[in-house]
Design a protein that fits this description.
Elements: H1 3-13, H2 20-55, H3 63-99, H4 101-114, H5 120-128, H6 139-155, H7 162-193
């Protein structure tokens, strides 16, 4: 866990979970994370521009042009997806800020449930908002594991079953839950001792 997340959790402990300050501190952390995601997307798009220049450079054979196409597609896809993810988070934060205090707690719940459910800050905010939240794997991780399982079941039907997959997923969630809960207890315990 990074120090910014630790500092944010310590600062949130001192605030009322239904106050505007709580919302500002929590979304400040999310905003910083979203900006860095968006900026990484911009950097990958710049790499795609290098591939675009490589596509139109004068080469004696087609290999240079094909490498340029591959670079544009690869870095452009990663960059565009990262940029969109970061930008969409920023738009949601700004929209819920403008909407007013009645929607701010719900906006925090959405962020914490769907994007930060495996991180201590997301679990802590959900607990402070009155939910008995436990760390869970993010929905995208579960969807990806199910897709991988479907492919492995086609390739090796006897080794990969739904029951074994459920056991693996439960074990991963138990490990995650234990890890995140220990981190939260460490942060909250250290702050109370001070």
């Amino acid at each position: 866990m990074d120090s910014r997340q630790r500092k944010t959790i310590i600062r949130l402990q001192e605030l009322d979970p239904h106050s505007i300050e709580f919302y500002d501190v929590a979304t400040g952390y999310f905003r910083r994370r979203s900006r860095s995601t968006r900026n990484c997307g911009i950097i990958f798009c710049l790499f795609a521009l290098v591939g675009l220049m490589r596509m139109f450079a004068p080469w004696e054979n087609w290999s240079g042009h094909l490498q340029g196409v591959f670079i544009v597609l690869f870095f452009g896809l990663i960059g565009w997806n990262a940029y969109r993810m970061g930008n969409n988070e920023l738009i949601l934060i700004k929209a819920s800020r403008v909407a007013g205090p009645e929607y701010q707690a719900e906006a925090l719940r959405v962020f914490c449930r769907y994007q930060y459910s495996a991180q201590p800050i997301g679990v802590y905010i959900l607990r402070r908002l009155g939910e008995g939240a436990q760390p869970t794997l993010p929905p995208a991780a579960i969807k990806g594991r199910k897709r991988d399982l479907a492919m492995l079941k086609m390739l090796f039907p006897r080794r990969f079953t739904d029951q074994k997959n459920e056991q693996r997923m439960k074990k991963r969630e138990d490990v995650l839950r234990d890890k995140v809960n220990r981190k939260l207890e460490d942060i909250v315990g250290q702050h109370r001792q001070l």
